[in-house]
Amino acid sequence: MMMRALIALAAITALVTSPAIAGDVVLRDVPTDDDGRITLGELFEGAGAASSVVVGTRAGPTAVLDAVQVQRTARAHGLNWSNPTGLRRIVVREGAPAPSHSASSSPSHGARAGTSGSVEVLAYARNINTGETIGPQDIIWTTVQAHQAGASPDTDQIIGLAARRPLRAGAAVSVRDLSAPQVITRGEIVQVTFDHGGVRLTASGRAQRNAALGEPVQLINTQSGRIIDAVASGPGQAVTGPAAQRLRAASPAELAAYR
Hints:
Layout: H1 2-17, E1 26-27, E2 32-33, E3 37-39, H2 40-43, E4 44-45, E5 54-57, E6 62-66, H3 67-76, E7 89-94, E8 112-113, E9 118-124, E10 139-145, H4 155-158, E11 162-163, E12 178-179, E13 182-184, E14 189-196, E15 199-207, E16 211-212, E17 216-221, E18 227-234, E19 237-240, H5 242-249, H6 252-258
Parallel strand pairs: 2-7, 14-19
Antiparallel strand pairs: 1-4, 3-5, 6-7, 8-9, 9-10, 11-12, 13-16, 14-15, 15-17, 17-18, 18-19
């Protein structure tokens, strides 16, 4: 009898202390916050009692949250967001919260329809110098006429990339303006790796040029003096062989994920 009583007590305790499981929640089409404190209620429709839970902060016109971390926080407070489109990031804009009617469009993807023939596209929030890296705080949504809008990239494609040339605040974002950030500097000693079919070889070489992630770079082997043709794979790192071929063929989005 005593054992049954203990089991029943444990079950009751678990029910009382565990968060209530709510129904599925839907990410708002355009998440916004007006005080710099981003809450579950500002991200999701139907957040209920968890609406006031803070999941991040916003210091500029926009903030970018990690979608996986948001999903974990939501689940910890009894909310189930399935992330049906597989978002990696959620863009939150400054402004009063607005009702959402559909989850078909994502705040982190492409151009969005506006009113009277206008669309919203990603733009630079400030003037950016050549070589500067694009961060979440450097992009905002802006409205332009549909005929002026080109293909608007996803935030996943551009965050972490570097400016190829000076970029003006308010200009629409284009992947043509950006490249992978420089990871190798001419003259530095680089660790180069060949790894294929269970064979792994490493060597050191002096870089003969600057190189961004995924760009080819020639290295002079510090021991033999021979030239090594490689591809930059990270800060002070390069690869040869099949890994180099994959990096050379990678798209901007794939390079962003590689980082």
